Amino acid sequence: MTRLSTRIQTLTAGGNGWAVYYRAREMKAAGVPVLDLTIGEHDRRTDPAILEVMDASARGGNTGYAHLTGSPALRDTIAARVAARTGVPTTRDNVAVVPGGQFALFAALMAGIDPGDDVLFPDPYYTSYPGTVRSAGGRPVPVPARPEDGFQPRAADLLVACTGAARALLINSPNNPTGAVYSDAVLEGIARVARDRDLWVVSDEVYDTQCWTGPHRSLRSVPGMAERVLVAGSMSKSHAMTGSRIGWLIGPEAVIAGVSALANTTTYGPPGYIQDATLHALTLGEGFEAGVAAPFRRRRDLCLARIAGQQAVGVIPSGGAMYLMLDVRATGLSGVNFALQLLETKHVAVMPGESFGAAAAGHVRLALTLPDDDLLAALDTLLTFAQELSR
């Protein structure tokens, strides 16, 4: 066979750390009852009212080629939503509708970096980040954030990692996997680094409706940052539309024009009937979005109360997103070995912290995506297992 490109062969260099996830799937397929807390997938489906609009649009004939970067009406609606929530003037010319938040990240990097440029991002990080950077031709540079800081990145560490090749910084708040919501001081420190080193900042804000300790703040709203921040947003988490693959990129007009050209040579835009359903979903308002987020807030609080009653496992403060990061270093095991043993012996599946970078070694991530009783049963099993190991 003709040789594969180096780009494709190195996308997941170093692996992606998802062995526990795949093993859990094998066990479930074999009939083993696994309580699965590995991935951030809602335990509710897309609201029927949204699906009805999608169906009516498709049956009504909106199945042809669609607007490359979104219909004017949808872009106007997204722009108004962003402007209202951030206080930053935003028009349709600042919005590109794309096939999901993941493509928004790729498009932002394609617009902002050249081959060989460094892209910094705090570690722990979402597992796709290194591969997304490589796919755009960049070099991924993880910058450790510390558990003792609640995994809030330090501006000083980012500055040290900023060599002459640095061109962009990728951040994620609320954060997957840690649940950290970056403080105002952290956001302002990131802004100083970006201005001092003339960096683009790609801000992954797909969890902006899942903030538990205060309102979400976008880095784009920091004074002087709107012209260098590219915001990735999505309907996946806010509206339980993960399979619809619809999101957006917010940025300066020149960036959005470039993303339109990229769409012309890659995706050719999201399907029109999904755009129509998205437009309807966004008109449902903040109350609807709060209802989608509510189970994860409740489960976070239930789990934190349960964890507070024991000593074997620590917990990283979680200000948002649908996850908890637990510190299992007292057991003497790595996060990988803890998760594998928990799965094989107790049939509870969690993600090892090492799946998300070296800084999360000795931790495991829980996705709060099972019904309350099942979630608490899985957590109790994990805590008992950790206590046994700690002895």
Describe the structure.
The structure is a single chain. By secondary structure, the protein is of the alpha/beta class. The chain has two domains: 6-45 and 287-390, Aspartate Aminotransferase, domain 1 (Alpha-Beta Complex); 64-284, Type I PLP-dependent aspartate aminotransferase-like (Major domain) (Aspartate Aminotransferase, domain 2), CATH 3.40.640. It has 13 helices and 13 strands. The chain has helices at 6-9, 19-29, 48-59, 72-86, 101-112, 129-135, 155-161, 184-196, 253-265, 272-282, 285-307, 335-346, 372-390, and strands at residues 35-36, 95-98, 118-123, 139-144, 166-172, 200-204, 229-234, 247-250, 314-315, 323-327, 348-349, 351-352, 363-367. A seven-stranded mixed sheet has the order 2-8-7-6-5-3-4, with helices on both faces. A four-stranded antiparallel sheet has the order 9-10-13-12. It has a two-stranded parallel sheet with strand order 1-11. The chain is globular, with a radius of gyration of 21 Å.
Structural features:
Aspartate Aminotransferase, domain 2; single chain; seven-stranded mixed sheet; 391 residues; Aspartate Aminotransferase, domain 1; globular; four-stranded antiparallel sheet
The number of helical segments is 13
**Low confidence ranges:** none
CATH-derived topology of the largest domain: Aspartate Aminotransferase, domain 2
Q: Give the SSE order as H and E letters.
A: HHEHHEHEHEHEHEEEHHHEEHEEEH
CATH class (first level) name of the largest domain: Alpha Beta
Question: Pairing-aware structural class of the strands and helices?
Answer: alpha/beta
Mean pLDDT: 96
Protein name: Aminotransferase
InterPro entries: Aminotransferase_I/II_large, AspAT/PAT-like, NHTrfase_class1_PyrdxlP-BS, PyrdxlP-dep_Trfase, PyrdxlP-dep_Trfase_major, PyrdxlP-dep_Trfase_small
GO molecular function: L-aspartate:2-oxoglutarate aminotransferase activity; pyridoxal phosphate binding
Pfam families: Aminotran_1_2
